[in-house]
Structures are given as structure tokens and as C-alpha cells.
Amino acid sequence: xxxxxxxxxxxxxxxxxxxxxxxxxxxxxxxxxxxxxxxxxxxxxxxxxxxxxxxxxxxxxxxxxxxxxxxxxxxxxxxxxxxxxxxxxxxxxxxxxxxxxxxxxxxxxxxxxxxxxxxxxxxxxxxxxxxxxxxxxxxxxxxxxxxxxxxxxxxxxxxxxxxxxxxxxxxxxxxxxxxxxxxxxxxxxxxxxxxxxxxxxxxxxxxxxxxxxxxxxxxxxxxxxxxxxxxxxxxxxxxxxxxxxxxxxxxxxxxxxxxxxxxxxxxxxxxxxxxxxxxxxxxxxxxxxxxxxxxxxxxxxxxxxx
Length: 306
Known about the structure:
This protein is α/β, with parallel strands linked by helices. The chain has helices at residues 22-32, 124-133, 145-153, 176-186, 212-225, 241-252, 269-280, 292-301; strands spanning 2-6, 8-11, 35-37, 42-47, 50-55, 61-65, 75-84, 90-100, 106-110, 165-172, 192-196, 230-236, 256-262, 285-289.
């Protein structure tokens, strides 16, 4: 099992007020980037009587990876995490959640920006307008995407045992709560978020613009953790998703069933299609689409959903 988190010396109170006012939303997003990590703090995790200890990195980021003493049932579970100073003084205590997927045939790895949410990732002005002018509940998602993901969550499994979703993005951990609220408000399947390294307020204008290699590594770790799972990738061609998914397929071809790419950059249409053609040569089904209705039709065509 794996748990990620951060220890902060300071983090602004960023309780969301779901209003449409520019200054309200600007203030909230700015606060998400007003933080000061606590480097190298000692962190202790408690779960079902087990205690695991680690040390945070220079940016306050910590990772626990451990094997449970007893069998852990599928579903959501809580852990308690406590941070300490070098001399043993308690800094903070919090609870976190992790998800143990049911044993299902499929798992889904999806990008977020311009795959699920309208983000205009390639255009700085439009990207910041979406982020700063709208709150998590007014962010626009692509039509029928939720319906597609709902169908995928139940593909060849039982309602009480949904397929696992992993939402992997170049967006920073600063936006974790923001993204979770957007997904839950819009009714997307619950899933595990794997995001990019924290940024400070002075780097706010660079949000979502780096970390593509990190995204590749995060996806590889997921597949390494579930070597017997069949994966379906969903992304877009606003940045590097097709290239990343092709690199994954070169190494883990037997694990990849299908790749879906939303065509949001017409200038990259031919380049994207060339990559998908190479994936087809590896017997991986692909779909280049603009509207999610076309992706749904493809999923039905290949028997992924009914």
C-alpha cells in the first residue's frame, strides 16, 4: 500500500466559497499556492495496529509504502499520520484515505486538463481565466464525459466492485482539494489522484506547465503495482499525452488494451494520428475523438462497454 502527503510549516486557510466573483475565486486559488513546506520532518503512519515511519523530503513531501500484516479488504480505508520535529515534538496529526481496488479485469488511467475539464492548457491566458474566474463547481467538463466514465467504471464488473480509476495530471498537489471537489460535484468515479510537485505562489502562472516526465514515471509506477491488470488510457493532444502513452505501450504493451485521445489541438491532428497508428500496430485499440459520444461509441464497438 502507498500513501502520499505533505508536511507544512505554514499553509493558508483556503476554505472554498463557491461563488462566481472574480476576486473571491482569485483569492482562493492564490491561497492554494501560499504555503511553506516543512523539510525533512519525521512522519509516522498508523494503520490497524501497524506503525510505519519515514522522513519527508526537502519540499515536505512524504511517501509511505508498506505491506499490511493482515488481509485488507477492497474499498476505502483510513490511516492516521503524525508529523514530528527532529527532537520528537509533535507538529501535526491528520487522517488520510487510501483505496484498495477490487479484483477486476480493467483499470483506467486518465488525464484531467483538456481530457475531462476544459482547461486550455496550451494557452496561458485562457488557462488562467479558467482557473481564476471559476470555482471547482463551475468549472466546465466536456459533455458526456461523466457518462462515459460511469460506463467504464462498471465495464465487465459488478456495481459493488467498480473498476479503479487513476487520475494522473501535470497539475500540482496544490490543486488536490480543488480537483477532488470538481470531480465529486460533477459525479465522476472516485479515484486516486497522482499530481505534480508543489509550487509556491510566485510560480502560480506556471501551473500545469511542467512535469511531463514525472507523469510518465507515475503511470509506470501504477502499472508496476498492478502487473496483472489490463489498462485503458484516456488523454488529449494539448500537450504530451500521446507521446507518454506510446512510451508506456513500448514497455508495457501486454497491459494496455486501448488508448483514447481527445483532439483539442487541430494543428496536432496528423502527428497524433501517426502515434495512434503505431499503437494500433501493437494491437492496441485507439480512438481519436472530439466529442465523448464518439468515444462511447468506440468503447461499445470494441466490447469494452455494453
